[in-house]
Design brief:
The chain is an alpha/beta fold and 257 residues long. It contains eight helices and eleven strands. The protein has two domains: 2-164, Spore Coat Polysaccharide Biosynthesis Protein SpsA, Chain A; 170-256. This is Glycosyl transferase.
Length: 257
């Protein structure tokens, strides 16, 4: 099966992450990377891998960027990865044993979240993502600051894991939140409340979300048992929810004025 899979990755200034990701993809005959004109050493790193083919495209939305990438893939199966996703040995072995023309058209994979390279325990903060799928039956749809894969056909869940191991600095994280929260606030305010999931309904209340995410991550998710790695992550999540709440308040006030 592996020879029928092409990994697809989006990059923008991912020099601190991309090499570790590529080292876990040595089994792939070709890797497609859609780069949004990186200004660090990302492109130099990509050029050092013979099986990597880079396409440059100015970023507009995640959905359009991913769909452009799907158009470049020539194999029947796609492995859709962020630049900080590490494919584990167990997942590689599991993918290798899958049938090329079976009854399943897409597979969800679960995550183990890493903080400074250390996998943390007892966390469910990242839901399984459908990363392996038949190219001809999939399209990405924009959803707030991110995207949703729309797949025609049957899905299953693999037992192997992906590691989510982002090493980008805090300043880059803040830069991302600055952009993402604008889109998320717009989505939350413009979507009828009966169409929002329960998380976004809480976010629409503004004051509740930062406090609830603190309690949820620390106590229910169990991040308190991960030492300083856990506190580091919880502080990030609370800050992200706080920034989003500020964005929602700002958008509401500007609309009224």
């Amino acid at each position: 099966m592996l020879e029928h899979i092409t990994p697809l990755i989006l990059t923008y200034n991912e020099a601190v992450n991309i090499e570790r990701t590529l080292e876990r993809l040595t089994w792939a005959k070709k890797i497609i990377v859609i780069d949004s004109y990186s200004t660090d050493t990302t492109l130099e790193i990509l050029d050092s891998y013979a099986q990597v083919q880079v396409f440059k495209r100015e970023f507009d939305t995640h959905g359009k960027q991913w769909n452009y990438g799907l158009e470049q893939v020539k194999t029947p199966w796609v492995l859709s990865l962020d630049a900080d996703y590490l494919v584990t040995d167990d997942l590689i072995s599991e993918m290798a044993a899958l049938p090329v023309d079976g009854q399943i058209d897409g597979y969800f994979v679960r995550f183990k979240y890493c903080v400074f390279g250390k996998p943390v325990r007892n966390t469910r903060i990242l839901p399984p993502r459908q990363v392996l799928f038949q190219n001809s039956k999939a399209i990405y749809i924009d959803d707030g600051h991110t995207q949703i894969l729309q797949l025609t056909g049957k899905s299953a869940v693999l037992s192997g894991y992906l590691y989510h191991d982002d090493r980008k600095p805090f300043s880059r994280w803040l830069w991302s939140q600055e952009r993402y929260t604008v889109l998320e606030a717009k989505k939350i305010l413009e979507t009828p409340i009966n169409e929002l999931d329960w998380v976004d309904r809480i976010r629409r209340k503004k004051v509740l979300a930062p406090w609830m995410i603190f309690i949820y991550c620390l106590m229910i998710e169990g991040w308190i048992f991960n030492g300083w790695h856990g506190w580091y992550y919880v502080f990030h999540r609370v800050l992200a929810e706080t920034i989003l709440a500020i964005r929602i308040i700002e958008a509401e006030k500007l609309k009224r004025d």
